[in-house]
């Protein structure tokens, strides 16, 4: 009898805590900057994972307590907990492995407590099967505010844009 009463008390406490969590949930008020793109990253020493991924997501408000689930065809990612970045507090993204079979739009479902909002990313579209090759022999010369970056682009590839990311490894970020 005592165990039955204890089990019933635990069940009631669990239900009260669950409803208390839902009562503190905030409605989703904004979904912006929907994105889906192929991202290939080489081995590096700044702690960013390497590989060939499909980054997808959006800016979502509010962040605390919001999760995102992404679906394309029969493939589901998540739910993942949205976590903003130092440079984008509303950032919410997932990064499944890239597949040439998943280049269409993703159906995103954001949930915060009982509040649910949906959005659709743009499609990646037709892209080459092979990822963009990484440059070789990357060097930095000079110092101060005028460094010179040099690299060799692999033969047979002509880039239409170049992006350079600079990290100060002496200043770690709270989220890695």
Please summarize what this structure is.
This protein has one helix and nine strands. The chain has one helix at about 1-25; strands spanning about 30-40, 50-60, 65-70, 75-80, 90-95, 105-110, 115-120, 135-140, 150.
Structure description:
With 176 residues, this protein is mainly beta. Helices cover 12% and strands 36% of the residues. The chain contains 1 helix and 9 strands. It has one helix at residues 2-23, and strands spanning 30-41, 51-61, 66-72, 75-81, 91-94, 107-112, 115-120, 136-141, 148-152. The protein has a 4-stranded antiparallel β-sheet, with no helix packed on it. A hairpin with a 2-residue loop joins β3 and β4 (75-81).
Give the SSE layout:
Layout: H1 2-23, E1 30-41, E2 51-61, E3 66-72, E4 75-81, E5 91-94, E6 107-112, E7 115-120, E8 136-141, E9 148-152
Antiparallel strand pairs: 1-2, 2-5, 3-4, 3-6, 6-7, 8-9
Describe this protein with a few key phrases.
176 residues, 9 strands, globular, 12% helix, disordered N terminus, 4-stranded antiparallel sheet, mainly beta, 3-stranded antiparallel sheet
